[in-house]
């Protein structure tokens, strides 16, 4: 009024930004949900609608976020969009970003527009041994597990090597995949080229030869007491490799385990990954949450979550060790039939899924789309 703006209300909302895919499907989705949990004045009478858009190597297949009133409090308003990758030719790799633009309208006020994006997905037809296209979150360091029960000497070597200071156990300090045969062969030769010949045993190196952290990148060898590497001294530190004479059966199995892992998780050259010596599944905990029934139009079927206002959360710090298999199998089934119901995913972060959540008031003025 007379050039002066006065705040006449506020809508406080929780927004969940949720994107999901499958390592064996060319389709991915981006879902957005919001719930007004408080506020005052005229802002609570607003309605919201959304429009999905994209950038990169994909096309928009369908989207839906019809206009819906924010009231009643603690009710959820949602939109969902499906995208298809265009990186389908043999050897193709494509990155993409998807966005939701939300428009808040209220009689007597100008519309307010805000945007939400999740751009962590990559789709490819370049994974060796995969006949189908699939999509992943490339920054997520998937977990390569060596079972202590099946391969005790291999698992023990990994545990001792990581305890000595070598990388690969955590998201903060993962290993990096290499597909360069020259680097792989150099890593192996420098680590185990002079290993002794002992019946039933074989030289194993950590970090694994198929990582960029091997001896081709520098450093020296070290070992432990009882590892039967007479020409190598004991030592610790964050660089170099550990060598250990493990059982030949465990070492022979390792190559197959590595290949299956890289193939299943679509870990390409330059991607991070973790190595653990036992299966550890840590349930996702970020305050009170409830699974709510959802109806999806026939393919990817995520599980939604409810958060308490005021929580802080980041997918980069909350991701826990959880393979994508349980999600992938559900998504595959939902491709062929309509699926309705709540899904219990103990950990929402894995290589096929990305989340963000924030508590925010409704924007006070329009923002132009990028």
Annotate the secondary structure layout.
Layout: E1 9-20, E2 27-41, E3 47-56, E4 58-64, E5 68-69, E6 76-85, E7 93-105, E8 112-124, E9 134-136, E10 142-145, H1 152-163, E11 175-176, H2 181-192, E12 201-206, E13 221-222, E14 241-247, H3 248-264, E15 272-276, H4 315-318, H5 325-336, E16 353-361
Parallel strand pairs: 10-15, 13-14
Antiparallel strand pairs: 1-2, 1-16, 2-6, 3-5, 3-7, 4-6, 7-8, 8-9, 11-15, 12-14
How far the N terminus sits from the C terminus, by CA atoms, comes to 30 Å
Q: Give the number of helices.
A: 5
Q: Which geometry do the CA atoms define? A: elongated
The stretches of 5 or more residues where confidence is low (pLDDT under 50) are 279-348, 362-370
Mean pLDDT equals 80
Q: How many individual β-strands? A: 16
Written as H for each helix and E for each strand, in order along the chain, the element string is EEEEEEEEEEHEHEEEHEHHE
Strand content: 25-35%
Query: Residue share in helices?
Result: 10-25%
- What strand line-up does the widest sheet have? 4-6-2-1-16
Structural class: alpha+beta
State Rg: 25 Å
Structure characteristics:
5 helices; 370 residues; 15% helix; 5-stranded antiparallel β-sheet; alpha+beta
Structure description:
With 370 residues, the protein is an alpha+beta fold. 15% of the residues lie in helices and 32% in strands. It has a five-stranded antiparallel beta sheet, with no helix packed on it. A five-stranded antiparallel beta sheet has the order 5-3-7-8-9, with no helix packed on it. It has a three-stranded mixed beta sheet with strand order 10-15-11. The longest helix is centred in the last third of the chain and has 17 residues, at 248-264. The radius of gyration is 25 Å and the shape is elongated. Mean pLDDT is 80; it is low at 279-348 and 362-370.
